[in-house]
Amino acid sequence: MVDERDEAHQEERNPTWHARDVAVEASGREAATAVVPLVVAAVLLAGLGFAPGPDVLTVVAPGLSWLFVLFAAVPLARGVAAAERSEGCWDLLRAVLSPASLWAGKILAMWLWLLVTWALATVLSLGLFGATLAPAMLLAGPLGTLGVGTPFAMAAKFAHPNKEVLCYFGDGSFSLTGWDFETSMRFNLPFLGVIGNNSAMNQIRCGQIVKYGAERGEIGNRLGNVEFSKFAQMLGGYGEEVREPGQIRAALQRGREAVAAGKSALINIWVDIDVWAPGTKNQTMYK
Fold first, then answer.
1. CA atoms within 13 A on the CB side of 220
2. Per-domain residue ranges of the chain
3. Residue of 182 and 69 predicted with greater confidence
4. Of the four, 8, 88, 114, 202, which is 20 to 30 A from 255 by CA?
C-alpha cells in the first residue's frame, strides 16, 4: 500500500520542485533584464544615429528589428542556464528531467525571448520611426552557409519583382558565389549589393587571433585587395568604390538608380580590418 500522505510529506521535503520554480522565475527575470534594456537602447541609438536623415531611418527600420534579434541572441544564449546554475539547482533539474527535455525547454525559452525581442523592436520602430512592415529580410544566421547572399538576393527579387532588393556582403562571402552576379543580369533580377571589404575572412581571423595569438592568428585568412566594382562592370552591371564614409550615401543612391534602370549594382566599401563587429567578437567557436 502507498500512503499518499507520506508521498505528499516527502515531496514537501524534496527541494527539487521548489528549486525548479525558483530557477524558472529567475531565468525569466534575467532574460527580461537582458532583452528589454538592450532593445530600447538599440532603437533609441538607431534613432539618434539616423536623425539627420529620417527618410533613411523609415526605410531601414524594418530590418533593424531582425538585427536587434541577432544581437540579443548572444546574451540570451549565454544566460539560458545561468539562473539554474546561480540558484544551485541545475544538477537537481538534470536528476528529474531527461537531457533532451531539459535542452528542448531551454531552446524553446530562448526562441520565445527572441520573439519578444523582435516584437518589442518592431513596435518601437513602428511607433517612433513611422516604419512599415512591408520590407522583408533573409538571414543566413550567425553560422549559416557562407556565400548565400547572391542566390538569396536573386530569389528575393524573383519572389518580389516590384521591390528593391539590398544584399550585404563581406568580401570573403561574395567571392564564393559572386559569379552569379552575371546570372542576376541574365535573368533580369537586379539587386543592390553592398560589400564591406576588409581584404580578409575577418570573422575567422578574429577567432584565430583570440585563441592562438596575433602571430599564429594571421595564418590563412587574408584576402587580396579586390576592387569588386570592376567585377560588376565587367559583367554588365554598375560598380563603385567607396573609401570615405562621406561617400557612402551618394554611392548607394547611384546604385539604387542603376538597379531601377535594370542593372545589378555593387558598392564596394573599404573598411578597417582591425575593427570587429560585436557578433564577431562574441563568437564562441574558438573559445
1. 4
2. 4-129, 149-281
3. 182
4. 202
